[in-house]
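Before relying on records like the one below, remember that each one covers exactly one chain. Contacts with other chains, cofactors or solvent are not represented anywhere in the record.
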Amino acid sequence: MTRSKASLLLLTLMGCFHSSPDAAVLAPLVALFTQEPFDQSNQPEYLIFADELTASVFKSLRRDTRYRIVPTGKPFVCPSERPQCHLSELRAGVNQLMGDSAIATMDRTYSSERGLIRTGENILLVRRNGKWKIERVINGFTLVAG
């Protein structure tokens, strides 16, 4: 009886440390995100991750000099050497998973003179030889909330 409880506890703990299957699906989006046009002013863009899944998928951006990651829940103030800076919230998620294909959304929300702007893409991903790859961008969208 004790052995079966220990086995059950071990399986439960292994499940806690196992990464989300969605993270594996979303991993190719990092390359798509970093291909976006970038502000040529050589100033970093400030990003906040919308949730833990997005933070885990895009953790490599912490090493990219083009971006500064703002900790979630911390107040953000533009650095004194940059009176005008942009803070974007980045979100990625799997909308639908169907065997070896998935539809995901990646979007950014930021503020402008017109109010909040949300831009993004819906993306078809396929798994080939056990690895997820972007098949194509299905569509893009822009929403403005004035």
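The chain has one domain: 20-145.
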